[in-house]
Amino acid sequence: MHNYDVKQEVTDKYSLRGRVFNKIREDILSGKYREHEELKEVAIGEELGVSRTPVREAFRQLELEGLIQIVPNKGAYVTGITAKDVEDIYRIRSLLEGLCAKWATEYITQEQLEELEENVYLADFHAAKGHLDQMADLDNRFHHILYEACNSKQLARLLIDFHEYVLRVRKKTLSSGGRGRISNDEHRQIMEAIKAKDADRAEALAHEHMINAYDNMVKNGLYHIYPSYGEDGPADGKG
Is CATH 1.20.120.530 the classification given to domain 83-224? Predict the structure, then answer.
């Protein structure tokens, strides 16, 4: 009996190949598969209720993203995300999120701006109640509204991918040291700068927001969640 039948998903947003790829990537990023663990085409195909072909195609795409390593005549092994990868992602994100906020000052719609304001208000409410899951969901949504508002499919795609790569560590560290409330205060300042059409300030605040988020991760468990850079070598096919 299959644990998860990908063919039965309601949404048609992705092709079968795309849904298989996204499910495997989600499982890697969530920590379901351990570093250097072998991924078996047949077992994953059975779990997802698909043939080996879309699984094999997903493996190729995952290797391009650097999440797995395919060793010829041996198999596919998880490389996943390291602490060094997270550092790199946040350095890049700090620049791209700044650009996103800057562009959003020009292209954001009134509806999107109102949604940002509501998001900040709701996050304050849930922070006061200690609702950490809701805080994490609202934090995700705040950034996705900005990605939609920047009016650039290419920039939005890059930021969404980076956002998903570090979701595992973000869920943990948002609840550490009062970061959730501080993060929402930073969201408010970004939102107000965008509302005031102050593109330079919005860019600077969004850049600083990412730097602060990374610093908080380092203080609150980044290296406990992800292996340190150079801790282990690449998969050698020994299982």
Answer: yes
**pLDDT tens sequence across 33-79:** 888 899 999 999 999 999 989 999 999 989 988 889 999 989 999 98
Look at 39 and 171; give whichever has higher pLDDT: 39
135 token code pair: 């805080």
Per-residue pLDDT at 121 exceeds 80: yes
The dotted CATH code for 6-78 is 1.10.10.10
Contact 52, 42 (CB under 8 A): yes
- What's this model's pTM, rounded to 2 decimal places? 0.75
Counting residues of the chain whose pLDDT is more than 90, the rounded percentage is 48
The Cα 212–Cα 188 span in angstroms is 15
Residue with tokens 């039965």: 8
SS3 label, residue 239: coil
CB 81 within 8 A of CB 158: no
Residues carrying CATH 1.20.120.530, the chain: 83-224
What is the Cα–Cα distance from 40 to 20, expressed in whole angstroms?
Answer: 14
Q: How many Å is the Cα radius of gyration of the chain?
A: 19
Cα 44 from Cα 48, distance rounded (Å): 6
